[in-house]
Amino acid sequence: MHDGERKELSFSTRAVHPVEPESTDGVRPHAPPIYQTSTFLFDNVEQGARRFAGEEEGYIYSRLGNPTTRILEMTGADLENAEDGAAFASGMGAISAVLLQLLSAGDHLVAGRTLYGCTYSLMQGILPRMGVQVTFVDATDITAVKEAVRPETRVLYAETPANPSMDLVDLEAFAALGRETGATTVVDNTFMSPYLQRPLDWGIDVSVHSATKYIGGHGDVVAGLAFSSADLVAEVKEEALKDIGAILGPFDAWLLIRGLKTLPLRMEKHSTNAQTIAEWLQEHPRVSRVRYPGLPSHPQHQLARRQNPRGLYGGMLSLEMEGGFEAGRQLLDRVRLCTLAVSLGATDTLIEHPASMTHSTIDEKDQRAVGISPGLVRMSVGVEDCDDLLSDLEQAMRGL
Ligand code: LCS
Q1: From the candidates 63, 305, 306, 334, which is the catalytic residue?
Q2: Burial level of 349, CB count in 10 A (0-12/13-18/19+)?
């Protein structure tokens, strides 16, 4: 299929048809081949030298590029409406490579204050040690982001929805602020996936993913992706990815290409299940608060509707139990169908306790400031039959 023809097709169709593998010797496999090789042969010394000099297209060594991984990068970029993409060994591999590429000693980063625990600790630990100053702000408030910007600010960074507060960032306003201040905007799009949200469509410069989650979709691979302009992706690949080396292996890339095929189907079911469960939890007397962008009670529900025109709000929600930490602990210990585990975006429902698990790298006092109370429970709602999930929650809540 030509690029022009692809552009005419809907997201679901393009997800099922990966960008075509480069065919070798007339062999045309239906599924993309897994090029499980660390290096590639040269015909002669001149050819090897031409490839190293960038004078001839072609593969050299899998840390510099691999044909299976390339299919994933191109298919993902097509779905995210980006010029190009790069694949990494993990979401943290993607985030750290992008930030290390964009920032140098003396630069300043402004980041939304609610972030996945390791993203937060990267920004609190390694980046300041390398001479980068970081200011955390409430990114739901664009004025607060603007006030934090300094002449040396190079990057504005946010998650939307944020993990685990489910706070949203106005992508259009965030992108406009980046352009106004000359900072590169980077958004973590893990929670929504490209099916439900494409930050670059709103003017954001870089979209990063923990592809471990919805893109892989089955809880069996750890991976990361970054999407941006062709120039920035080339820079990241030529420096941060090549020299730090957090590359994705070809088999893991293949699993993600397979995962992408069912992304639209899964996101529809994750979203309708999560909407039903959020509505049910909201009415439950033992639950004091539910955070889900699809609920009219979410403080940014109107923004969610604008940014998610499909009317689907993903599979992630968090809830606070009456009775704080102890009630939350009991709920987690009593569920039978929901799986007690961190991570998210798998086909089965995962339930966890951010304060002691995913966000335990954040100090207790900072946790409160970023909306992580001791009783907060996070659910990654799966694609099971929703009635079975409700029955499990009902039995777990009974007698609490
Ligand atoms: N960004 C977000 C929003 C995440 O939730 C995670 C991981 C990452 C980046 C990092 O991705 P990784 O390196 O693990 O592929 N979030 C996790 C979580 O909430 N539970 O376990 C991991």
Answers
A1: 63
A2: buried
